[in-house]
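Let's see one such:

===
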Amino acid sequence: MSLRLFLDEDSQAKRLVDLLRDAGHDVLTVNEVGLVRKPDSFILDYARQEGRLLLTRNCDDFYNLHKINSNHSGIFAIYQDADLSKNMSYSTIVKCIANLESSGLIVANQFIPLNPCNY
């Protein structure tokens, strides 16, 4: 299976993009569509219009936008820790997305932190 993902400015590292594409996902980045430095609400609106799941590390801002309007294809949130050793690697992010996808979880209209599946 494959997900249609839209990666926020803070999550569009080339290595992560490559790993997600190698896993079979249809990936677009903020940079690729010319939306760098646009407001978060604009980014979420773009993802909504294109029917793409948003992947972001800007968790608090997108959680607030989700609470205002939860009509979207889903938001995958990656929380960052001051202790870098606790942060998710790119391969772990890809694995967590695969686990969620294979679980059959409905992600539309959901704000889903990926960190709980960091194992």
Remarks:
- The longest strand covers residues 4-7.
- The chain is about 35% helix and 15% strand.
- The CA atoms of residues 99 and 105 lie 10 Å apart.
- Helices lie at 14-22, 40-50, 59-68, 90-103.
